[in-house]
C-alpha cells in the first residue's frame, strides 16, 4: 500500500507538471502575435431621433440609427491558441458634453472552426445608439471601427483594433419618430 | 501506515516539533507574500479571480481563472473585459464594456454587458445607478487559464472538503520529517 501511494503521487505530480508546461508553452507560442487585419466598413442609412430613453434618465436623448456594410477576412487570425474572436463595431465621436464617446453598435462571436470571412450588407445594429445627451444631431465626425478580442486557450487576452475605418456625419435635422 | 506515522510523531522531540511548526509558518507566509506582491505589481486588490457564472460563455466558463491588472492611469475603453463590484455587494462580476462616455476633465462613466446575456447590466447595478465608474473596477482581465479555478469553486460549495484538505495538509506537514 505504501508503494501504491508513492506511485500514485509520482504519477499525479508528473501529469500536473506536464500539463502546466504544455499550457505555458501554449501561452508563449502566441504571446507575440500581432493579430492585425483590415476591415472595410460603410454606412448605408443614417438618421438621428430625439426621444426619451426609458432605460436611463427620463429626459430626451439623441438616438442614432444606421445600417452598415462590413467586409473583413479574419480567418488568418485563428491559430491553435485562439479559441474565439469577439468582434465588435464601435462608433467613436465627440460632443460638447463629453470629450470621448464610444458606443458598441454590433458584436459577434466567432469560434475557431467557423467561417471568419465576413461580408455583410445592410446590417442592422444589435444595440441602440443612445448618446449621453443631445450631441448626435449634426455631429460632423462619427468614426466606425471594427475591433476584436482574441480569447486564447491559455494566455493573454488581447484587444486589437482593425485598420480601416469609416467616418460619417449625422443629419442636421431630427427624423420624426414615426417615419422610418 | 497510520500506526507507523503515530510512532514517528511520538519519537520527535520538542526541537523537531518546533522546527516543523516553523517550516509550516514559512510556507504560509511565503504564499501570503507572493499574493500581496502580486497585488502591488498589478495594482488590483484581487489579481487572480475565478469566473463564477456563465454570463461570458463561450469565452469564459465557470471555473476558469483570470489574471487582472488595474492600471489606474490607463483609461477604460470599449471592449475591455472588466471585473467590477457593485457597491454593497461582495461578488465580483466579469463583463465587457459596452459604452464609454468620458468628459474633458477625465471623469468616465461606462456601461457593461455579459457576452452571453441578452441585455446590458443596468439591471444588476444598485437601484438608481445607471453607469459604472473607474472606482468600481477591481481590474481588467489580461490573462486567462481554463479549468484551474474549479478547485476554488468546489471548496466554496462543499466547505467540508476545504476543512478536510486543510486538515490533511496540516497533518502531513507536521508529521513528515523533511
Automatic annotation (TrEMBL), chain A:
<keyword id="KW-0812">Transmembrane</keyword>
<dbReference type="GO" id="GO:0045047">
    <property type="term" value="P:protein targeting to ER"/>
</dbReference>
<comment type="similarity">
    <text>Belongs to the SPCS3 family.</text>
</comment>
<dbReference type="InterPro" id="IPR007653">
    <property type="entry name" value="SPC3"/>
</dbReference>
<comment type="function">
    <text>Essential component of the signal peptidase complex (SPC) which catalyzes the cleavage of N-terminal signal sequences from nascent proteins as they are translocated into the lumen of the endoplasmic reticulum. Essential for the SPC catalytic activity, possibly by stabilizing and positioning the active center of the complex close to the lumenal surface.</text>
</comment>
<protein>
    <recommendedName>
        <fullName>Signal peptidase complex subunit 3</fullName>
    </recommendedName>
</protein>
<keyword id="KW-0472">Membrane</keyword>
<keyword id="KW-1133">Transmembrane helix</keyword>
<keyword id="KW-0256">Endoplasmic reticulum</keyword>
<dbReference type="GO" id="GO:0005787">
    <property type="term" value="C:signal peptidase complex"/>
</dbReference>
<dbReference type="Pfam" id="PF04573">
    <property type="entry name" value="SPC22"/>
</dbReference>
<dbReference type="GO" id="GO:0006465">
    <property type="term" value="P:signal peptide processing"/>
</dbReference>
<keyword id="KW-0735">Signal-anchor</keyword>
From TrEMBL, chain B:
<dbReference type="GO" id="GO:0005787">
    <property type="term" value="C:signal peptidase complex"/>
</dbReference>
<dbReference type="GO" id="GO:0009003">
    <property type="term" value="F:signal peptidase activity"/>
</dbReference>
<dbReference type="InterPro" id="IPR001733">
    <property type="entry name" value="Peptidase_S26B"/>
</dbReference>
<feature type="domain" description="Peptidase S24/S26A/S26B/S26C">
    <location>
        <begin position="35"/>
        <end position="102"/>
    </location>
</feature>
<protein>
    <recommendedName>
        <fullName>Signal peptidase complex catalytic subunit SEC11</fullName>
        <ecNumber>3.4.21.89</ecNumber>
    </recommendedName>
</protein>
<dbReference type="InterPro" id="IPR015927">
    <property type="entry name" value="Peptidase_S24_S26A/B/C"/>
</dbReference>
<comment type="similarity">
    <text>Belongs to the peptidase S26B family.</text>
</comment>
<dbReference type="InterPro" id="IPR019756">
    <property type="entry name" value="Pept_S26A_signal_pept_1_Ser-AS"/>
</dbReference>
<dbReference type="InterPro" id="IPR019758">
    <property type="entry name" value="Pept_S26A_signal_pept_1_CS"/>
</dbReference>
<dbReference type="InterPro" id="IPR036286">
    <property type="entry name" value="LexA/Signal_pep-like_sf"/>
</dbReference>
<keyword id="KW-0735">Signal-anchor</keyword>
<keyword id="KW-0472">Membrane</keyword>
<dbReference type="Pfam" id="PF00717">
    <property type="entry name" value="Peptidase_S24"/>
</dbReference>
<keyword id="KW-0378">Hydrolase</keyword>
<dbReference type="InterPro" id="IPR019533">
    <property type="entry name" value="Peptidase_S26"/>
</dbReference>
<keyword id="KW-0645">Protease</keyword>
<feature type="transmembrane region" description="Helical">
    <location>
        <begin position="21"/>
        <end position="41"/>
    </location>
</feature>
<keyword id="KW-1133">Transmembrane helix</keyword>
<dbReference type="GO" id="GO:0006465">
    <property type="term" value="P:signal peptide processing"/>
</dbReference>
<keyword id="KW-0256">Endoplasmic reticulum</keyword>
<comment type="function">
    <text>Catalytic component of the signal peptidase complex (SPC) which catalyzes the cleavage of N-terminal signal sequences from nascent proteins as they are translocated into the lumen of the endoplasmic reticulum. Specifically cleaves N-terminal signal peptides that contain a hydrophobic alpha-helix (h-region) shorter than 18-20 amino acids.</text>
</comment>
<dbReference type="GO" id="GO:0004252">
    <property type="term" value="F:serine-type endopeptidase activity"/>
</dbReference>
Amino acid at each position: 500500500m505504501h508503494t501504491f501511494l508513492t506511485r500514485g503521487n509520482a504519477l499525479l505530480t508528473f501529469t500536473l507538471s506536464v500539463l502546466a508546461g504544455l499550457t505555458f508553452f501554449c501561452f508563449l507560442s502566441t504571446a507575440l502575435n500581432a493579430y492585425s487585419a483590415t476591415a472595410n466598413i460603410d454606412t448605408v442609412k443614417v438618421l438621428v431621433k430625439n426621444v426619451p430613453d426609458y432605460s436611463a434618465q427620463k429626459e430626451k436623448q439623441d438616438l442614432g440609427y444606421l445600417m452598415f456594410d462590413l467586409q473583413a477576412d479574419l480567418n488568418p487570425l485563428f491559430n491553435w491558441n485562439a479559441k474565439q474572436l469577439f468582434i465588435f463595431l464601435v462608433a467613436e465621436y465627440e460632443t460638447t458634453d463629453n470629450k470621448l464617446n464610444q458606443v458598441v453598435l454590433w458584436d459577434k462571436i466567432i469560434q475557431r472552426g467557423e467561417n471568419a470571412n465576413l461580408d455583410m450588407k445592410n446590417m442592422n445594429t444589435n444595440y441602440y445608439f443612445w448618446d449621453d445627451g443631445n450631441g448626435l444631431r449634426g455631429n460632423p465626425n462619427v468614426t466606425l471601427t471594427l475591433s476584436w478580442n482574441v480569447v486564447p486557450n491559455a494566455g493573454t487576452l488581447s484587444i486589437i483594433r482593425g485598420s480601416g475605418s469609416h467616418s460619417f456625419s449625422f443629419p442636421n435635422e431630427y427624423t420624426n419618430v414615426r417615419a422610418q | 501506515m497510520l500506526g507507523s506515522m503515530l510512532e514517528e510523531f511520538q519519537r520527535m522531540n520538542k526541537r523537531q516539533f518546533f522546527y516543523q511548526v516553523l517550516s509550516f509558518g514559512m510556507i504560509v507566509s511565503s504564499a501570503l507574500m507572493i499574493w500581496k506582491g502580486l497585488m502591488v505589481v498589478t495594482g488590483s486588490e484581487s489579481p487572480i479571480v475565478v469566473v463564477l457564472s456563465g454570463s461570458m460563455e463561450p469565452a469564459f466558463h465557470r471555473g476558469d481563472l483570470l489574471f487582472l491588472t488595474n492600471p489606474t492611469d490607463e483609461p477604460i475603453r470599449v471592449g475591455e473585459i472588466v471585473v467590477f463590484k457593485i457597491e454593497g455587494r461582495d461578488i465580483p462580476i466579469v463583463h465587457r464594456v459596452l459604452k464609454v462616455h468620458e468628459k474633458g476633465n477625465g471623469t468616465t462613466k461606462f456601461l457593461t454587458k455579459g457576452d452571453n446575456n441578452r441585455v446590458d447590466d443596468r439591471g444588476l447595478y444598485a437601484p438608481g445607478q445607471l453607469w459604472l465608474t473607474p472606482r468600481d473596477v477591481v481590474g481588467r482581465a489580461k490573462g486567462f487559464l481554463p479549468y484551474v479555478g474549479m478547485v476554488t469553486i468546489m471548496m466554496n460549495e462543499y466547505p467540508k472538503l476545504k476543512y478536510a484538505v486543510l486538515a490533511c495538509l496540516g497533518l502531513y506537514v507536521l508529521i513528515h520529517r523533511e
